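Q: Here's a chain of 167 amino acids. Please give me its 3D structure as C-alpha cells.
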Amino acid sequence: MCQDSLELLLLRHAKSSWDSVAQTDHQRPLNSRGVDAAARMARLCVDLDLLPDRILASDACRTRETVDRFIDSADWSGPALFRSELYLAPAETLIDEARSHGQESRRVLMVAHNPGIEDLASSLAGELITCPTATLSRFRIDAKFWSDWNGTATEHLGTWRPKELDD
C-alpha cells in the first residue's frame, strides 16, 4: 500500500438469528452460519495479507460478534472501536466515522449494516455492489490521513462474499 494512500475495508455483519421475537434488532446475535462466515472472512484477510490496523464497528450484538469471530480467527490484536453511531448508519455517517476515528491507521476495517454498507461500497466502486451478510469490499483511498478523506475512492480492489469462496 502506498504511504500516501489509505485502504478501507467494508464488512457487512455476518448472518444474524431471528429466533427470539423478544430481542430488539440491536440485540440480535449471529446464527451458526454467521459465526462460520465471520471466521471465513477473517481467514481470507489473513490469506490476502489484508488485516486492518484498526476496526470501527457498530455496537449492535451481531456486529460485535462478527468482530469477535474475526479477531479470534485472524489472531488479530489491533484496536477495535464499537460506535453506536454506526448502528444502521447511512453511507455519509460511515464516511464521517472513518474520518473521525481512523486516526493514524493506514487500513481500516468498518463493520456495519445495510443499506449503509452497500450504499457506500456502491458509491465508492461507481457501480452496484450487492452486500449480503459477511460481504467484504476493499478500496484504495487517496488521502494521507483519514481526516482528509473526501469520501471517494481511487480504486475498488475487490469484493468477496462467503458463498463465493472455495472451502
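Q: Can you summarize the key feature?
A: The chain has a mean pLDDT of 95.
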